[in-house]
Every structure is written in C-alpha cells, then in structure tokens.
From TrEMBL, chain A:
It is found in: Cell membrane. The lineage of its organism: Bacteria, Pseudomonadati, Pseudomonadota, Gammaproteobacteria, Cellvibrionales. Its main location: membrane. The chain crosses the membrane at residues 12-35, 69-91, 98-124, 130-149, 186-212, 232-250. Keywords: Cell membrane, Membrane, Transmembrane, Transmembrane helix, Transport. This is ABC transporter permease. It comes from Zhongshania marina.
Automatic annotation (TrEMBL), chain B:
It is an enzyme of class 7 (translocase). PANTHER family: SPERMIDINE/PUTRESCINE IMPORT ATP-BINDING PROTEIN POTA (PTHR42781), SPERMIDINE_PUTRESCINE IMPORT ATP-BINDING PROTEIN POTA (PTHR42781:SF4). It comes from Zhongshania marina. The gene is potA. GO terms for molecular function: ABC-type polyamine transporter activity; ATP binding; ATP hydrolysis activity. Part of the ABC transporter complex PotABCD involved in spermidine/putrescine import. Responsible for energy coupling to the transport system. PROSITE patterns: ABC_TRANSPORTER_1 (PS00211), ABC_TRANSPORTER_2 (PS50893). This is Spermidine/putrescine import ATP-binding protein PotA. InterPro entries: AAA+_ATPase, ABC_SmlMolc_Importer, ABC_transporter-like_ATP-bd, ABC_transporter-like_CS, Mo/tungstate-bd_C_term_dom, P-loop_NTPase, PotA-like, Transp-assoc_OB_typ2.
C-alpha cells in the first residue's frame, strides 16, 4: 500500500496531467498571447512588450484598475473589521442561527446577491457608484473573513484566555494581548481573501456599478464584447499576477484557512 | 485560609456541586480527588473565578471572593493544557502576570530570571513554548503561576499529560517546591495514587458531594464509606449483616462465607441486623498453599481463579467455596524467578480481625 502511494501508476499520472492541462492551458494561452506581436490571437508571430505599453496608455483601463484597487482595499479593510467581529460573535455565543446569518452569503449565488443589492440601493436611493460597489463587496466578503477568524478561534485553546484573566489581565487586556495576536493569521488571511474576491468580482459589481465607476473586470468585459485583443490578454495577465501573489502569501500565512 | 461554605453549582438539571463545604489551611497541599464528573474541576473553577456559585460563599483569609473577577483574586492556576501563550517566549510568558501589576521592567527581568533558576530552566528564557518538552512546559506553567507569589495555587490535573516516569519525577519536584515556597496548593486529580503521594489532606468527591476529607493514610486504611474504599487503591468489598455487637468487636455474616469477627469502626455504631460492608485491602490478606492461623485470624480455602502479574507484586483472584471472589496480593520478593501459584491451584487465605475495616 505504502509503495502504491509513493509511486502512483502511470495511468494516474496521465489522468492528472490531462486535468491540469485542462485547468492551465487557457491561462497559459492568455499569458503567451499577451506577448505576441500580432493583433490576432491565432498564431505566434514574435515577442513584444507593446500591448503592455498600450495598456499603460489606455486611460479607461488605468482608471478602471485604480477603481478596482481602491474598492478592493477599502472593502477588504471594512470586511476584515466586520468579519473579525462577526467571527468572534459566532464563536462566543455559539448560536447556529448567528453563524448561518453571517456565513449564508457565501453559499448564495452571486447573481442573487447582485440583483438584491441593486434593488436595495434603488429602494434606499443610493446613487450607484464606488460607494455602492464597496458596500456590496463588503457584504459578500464579511462571511469569508468571519469563517477564517472563526476557524482560527475554534482551534485555539480556550484556557489561554482564562489563563490571561487568571494571571491578572482584564477582559480587554486578555483580548489585546492573547486573543488578538493569536487570531492575527486568521484575520490577515481573511483580509487577503476579501481583497482577491473583491478585485476580480464581476457579477455583483456589474449590478451595483454606476457611471464612471467601472472596475477592471467590467472594463475587460466591455473590451471583449468587440474582440479579445492582445491588450485584454495583457491586463488579464497582470490581474492574474496580482491574484497569484496574494494567494501565495495567503497560503504561507495560513494553509488551514485555504484548505477549509 | 480558604473556606468553602455550602457551595452549590448547577448546570441545567445537572447538580455539579451540592452544598460543598471545606476548609483549607495555609501552607497545605490539599487535593480534590474523584472520578470525572464528580465536581472537582467545577469547584476549582469557582475558586479561580472562571465560574460563579449558585449558592454559598468562598472566603479567602476571611474575605468573600465571590464578587471578585479572576484577575482580582490573588489566586493563580496551572492548567491541564499548561495554557502557555504560544506567541510569547518563555520569559514573556512568565513576565505576563508581573506586567499586569505595573512592576518596573528591570525588576520584572530579575524576577523572571530568578524563577527560571528555581525551576532549573535558566537557558530556556528565549525559547517559545512549542520548542519545549512536556515536562519543561509544565515547569514553565508553574513558574508563571508562582512568579508573583499568589496566596493560593490551583493545579488542574497538571501531570496527566506526562508519561509515568516523568510524572513521578514531577511529583517529587512539586512536593519539594511547595515545601520551599510555602504557598498553599489546591490540586485536582482523578489519579488516586498521585493524590496519596502528594497531599497533606485529600477531599474525595463523588457526584457533587464530598465523601471524605482526611490525610492519605487515614483515607486508605479507614475509608468512611464504600465509595472511598473502592476509589482509593484496590479493595475487596464484602456485603455483610451484623450478627452481634460487643464493645470492640462485631460478628458479621457474609453470604457464602458464614460468620466472622471484625474490629469495630469507632466512627459508626452498628446495631444487630444492620447491613454493612467489610473493606479488605488485598495486601492485608495472607495467602499460601497451607496456612497456620492465630486465634484472631479467620481462614478460608479456595483456588486461584485468575492472576495478574505486575512485576513487583502479583494479584491473585481467589475463588472461595461459594463462588465469592477475593483479591489477594503477594510481593514477588523471593530471590530468583518467582512464580508462586498457577490458575486452579488450591490455596488458603487468612486475615486478621483488624485487617478489615467496616463501613455502612
């Protein structure tokens, strides 16, 4: 048995290879063609940086990228604060309905969240724009942060907080000196997850965006409507790079959070 | 010094503690002993302040504790899991209670260094808890709890995670440490051997009540009731009826064994016809193929039903004529390889009339 585990059969390797090819060839193609010296995504002509050059001269894309970054940063920050509090509350009060309420949006289809948020913004007369997008992103990111924080909490020895109190710490001191430092990896992981979810969200943003608040995914979509230009490849490659860096950092900080 | 007066604690319908009262003297090594669910940990948590009493009062040096938060009580706890802060070094862990009291930094450093010397781990100051062995974590947890000299140290099964050898060594260290610093220890355990070895006095608890409070030797030789007799050490419990009562001796009848004499228990007045139980420690029973007995011994014949070889001793389970099983114990102290009896061998057992102890 142990030998089998150590040396998987050739068939298994082949099957795995096919699946990985299916997963990564489209991404590889995008990256490859972003350096292709041709307007058509058909055949390899030669290496060039010019699509990246053009990209950084395209005002619309730069504006959208800036929007995306601002939205992702603010909504990740807000979602991290609120999600951490929610995670603490779920852990502390141990009520099923509480965790269902906080974590529910994770399981909800994006299209549903998008439509319902749009309806709500209209109902409350919120002008669609950066604010409405940020509010929308915060609302669907809270659950992910809460999940990361709560899983970290439930892995924590409860007697640590009691030990802190026992040794003379007030409830606030115990939180600041023991609970919070131990939660930090969970909080950071949750925050980064919120950031990546926010920066590449399309569906919910589509419903809650207004004039002049287009984000990078929306901008890419509108460019693709005409044709998949090498410029789109270039911006997609950059977006991929940012996400990849974040995911790597995330898995370094807390592998368990990703696994869950 | 610590007075627990009629303390009750309920969790829903479950009565964890039912009007428990006890007094712990200053400088004492006091143990709460009982099976899991007996309420010993609940009582410890009430003393520490992690939980609130439903009824009753806890006094420390005559002052009520019940209104104080854990951080306001001059009481520290050594947790079963040690509860060392994993994100702090050993030195930072030990300094934690001192930082809470606004002692100057140089003084804190000095105190930390001193206590690390006391627990013989001076070179571990900069290590993190997960770099320490179980025994080292244990010592650091104790150092952290003792560094600012609490009035009372609570220990919640602190040795249960250690292996047998290390546990014995830590027991000796605990006894010496307690003797040196003179701080009152309240120790919780379910391990009767540990309780007997460590304590000045033991409170045996069962189902939220105290069964008996006494010194270890008294608990062992003169248990107040069947529970204590059975819980502490190995014990034969023989149901009996009182047949006749004299001043210092009773005659009892045991089903299957007939009538025999036992010494009276000065604590309990038995009357003729009362039911009782004879508690008889296996090591107080004589066992041989053929026995000569004195006037104040009783003798029975039987055969070896089962045996447990434990190295230093062998426990023999002897089946007497009417199917009554009695445990006897013989030391394997003869030179050479000792194998005294085999299963099925005919043997005789005898015990002195004052070897047994009568309980209600």
């Amino acid at each position: 048995m142990a030998k089998n585990n150590a040396n998987p059969s050739k068939l298994l390797i082949a099957a795995g290879g096919v699946v990985y090819m299916f997963l990564y060839i489209p991404l590889a193609v995008v990256v490859l063609f972003s350096f292709n010296d041709s307007k058509l995504n058909a055949e390899w002509v030669g290496f060039t940086w010019k699509w990246y050059d053009k990209l950084f001269q395209n005002g619309d894309i730069l504006h959208a990228a800036a929007n995306s970054l601002i939205i992702a940063l603010i909504s990740a920050l807000l979602a991290t604060i609120l999600g951490t509090l929610a995670g603490l509350a779920i852990y502390r009060f141990r009520q099923k309905w509480l965790s269902a309420l906080v974590l529910g949006p994770i399981a909800m289809p994006d299209i549903l969240i998008g439509v319902s948020l749009l309806l709500m913004f209209i109902l409350f007369n919120v002008t669609l724009g950066m604010t409405s997008i940020i509010l929308a992103h915060v609302s669907f990111c809270i659950g992910f942060v809460a999940l990361a924080v709560q899983s970290r909490l439930s892995g924590m020895d409860q007697s640590l907080v009691e030990a802190a109190r026992d040794l003379g710490a007030t409830p606030f001191q115990a939180f600041r000196l023991v609970t919070l430092p131990l939660l930090k990896p969970g909080i950071i992981a949750g925050g980064m997850m919120a950031f990546t979810l926010s920066i590449d969200d399309f569906v919910i943003t589509f419903f809650t965006a207004g004039v002049g608040s287009s984000t990078l995914p929306l901008e890419i979509y509108s460019m693709v409507k005409i044709a998949v230009t090498p410029e789109v490849n270039a911006v997609s490659t950059l977006l991929m790079l940012v996400t990849l860096v974040l995911i790597t950092a995330l898995s370094r900080i807390s592998p368990t959070v990703l696994r869950n | 010094m610590l007075e627990i007066i009629d303390v009750s604690r309920r969790f829903g319908d479950f009565v964890a503690l039912d009007k428990v009262s006890l007094n712990i003297q200053a400088g004492e090594f006091f143990t709460l002993l009982g099976p899991s669910g007996c309420g010993k940990t609940t009582l410890l948590r009430l003393i520490a302040g992690f939980d609130q009493v439903d009824e009753g009062e806890i006094l420390l040096d005559g002052k009520p504790l019940t209104a104080l938060n854990p951080e306001q009580r001059p009481i520290h706890t050594v947790f079963q899991s040690y509860a060392l802060f994993p994100h702090m070094t050993v030195a930072e862990n030990i300094a934690f209670p001192l930082r809470m009291t606004k002692i100057a930094k140089p003084v804190i450093d000095l105190m930390v260094r001193e206590i690390l010397e006391d627990v013989r781990l001076p070179d571990k100051a900069k290590h993190y808890p997960d770099e320490l062995s179980g025994g080292q974590k244990q010592r650091i947890a104790i150092a952290r709890a003792l560094v600012n000299r609490p009035r009372l140290l609570l220990l919640d099964e602190p040795l249960s995670a250690l292996d047998a050898k290390l546990r014995e060594q830590m027991q000796i260290e605990l006894i010496n440490l307690q003797k040196e610093i003179g701080i009152t220890f309240v120790y919780v355990t379910h391990d009767q051997g540990e309780a007997l070895a460590l304590s000045h006095r033991i409170a045996v608890m069962n189902k939220g009540e105290i069964s008996q409070i006494d010194e270890p030797s008294v608990l062992y030789s003169c248990p107040d009731n069947r529970f204590v007799a059975d819980f502490i050490g190995q014990c034969n419990l023989l149901d009996a009826t009182v047949v006749s009562v004299a001043e210092k001796q009773l005659r009892i009848s045991i089903a299957g064994l007939g009538e025999l004499d036992v010494c009276a228990n000065p604590e309990i007045d038995f009357a003729v016809g009362d039911t009782c139980a004879l508690t008889l420690r296996p090591e107080k029973i004589r066992l041989a193929a053929q026995l000569d007995i004195t006037d104040d011994e009783v003798l029975f014949s039987g055969k070896v039903h089962d045996m447990l070889y434990l190295g230093d001793v062998t426990v023999y389970i002897i089946e007497l004529a009417n199917g009554v099983l009695i445990e006897a114990m013989l030391a394997n102290d003869a030179p050479g390889r000792t194998r005294l009896f085999d299963t099925g061998d005919a043997v005789q057992i005898a015990w002195h009339t004052d070897a047994g102890h009568l309980v209600a």
